[in-house]
Design goal:
The chain is an all-alpha fold and 296 residues long. It has helices at 2-8, 20-28, 31-48, 50-53, 85-121, 123-137, 141-152, 156-182, 186-193, 198-206, 211-234, 246-253, 262-288. It has a single domain (2-11, 31-288), classed as MetI-like fold (Orthogonal Bundle), CATH 1.10.3720.
Amino acid sequence: MAEVATVVRSGPFRHSRPGTSRTWRELMRHPSAVVGGSMIATLLLVALIGPLIAPHDPLAMDLANRFQQPSLMHPFGTDEFGRDVFSRVIYGARISLQVGIVAVGIAGTLGCLLGLVTGYLGGWLDTAGQWVIDVLLAFPGLLLALAITAVLGPGLLNVIIAVGIGALPTYARVMRGQVLALKQEEFIVAARVTGCSTTRILFRHLFPNTLSPIIVLASLGFASAVLAGAALSFIGMGAQPPTPEWGAMLASGREYLRRQWWIAAFPGLAIAFTVLGFNLLGDGLRDALDPHREAG
């Protein structure tokens, strides 16, 4: 709900939203956005060229070299099975980005569609939709994702589905609020008077004018999705060993924190780096896409 408040506080976003060039200039003047964007770009680059820069096979075990401290041969050391932690962290970036992208895609698509249709049509459909959203919002997002994963069973795909469904109510609530603010505007009334179909009004006139807060929410949602996916894997409900997922690596390394600290420290730093990058970028996008913010 904190994300909803953060996004809505800047709105409503009118159809006279700033152009791409102005938004880009505003974004480049926001220090946290530049830093966050650079961090995410680095993460994406690592995920794309992971096999080229990983010095070892992330699944290859070498029991003779288990618990090796960080060195030139193993920059992040080795774990309890002699696997290279650096290589596993690099490959884990792909998994975490996959969780974030697909989960946000599920939540954004279904949530926006629900909020768009119920907000515009109103009536009993809006009442029923809000009842469903209120029921889902009654549970914390992570707890709801945990319950869904418990029903579907452990696994990376089930975690992605659970995290996406858990975030769906937030997108639906934000989209509905934007639609309610816009559907009485003159350009929507004019579209109805000229005989535009409901489908055209929804997807040609309303939806494009509600994208600004959804983009901000999605950037913040990436961080939440990555964190939730890692949390579920940490408790054994997500990616299963020997998959190099950051949350699962944290879980296996917690038993060795006192002496072999690097096994858990570097996956934890990777999670913190990713979440911080998306949060900083989201803050910058919120300011750049706010039409009420005065140009400097």
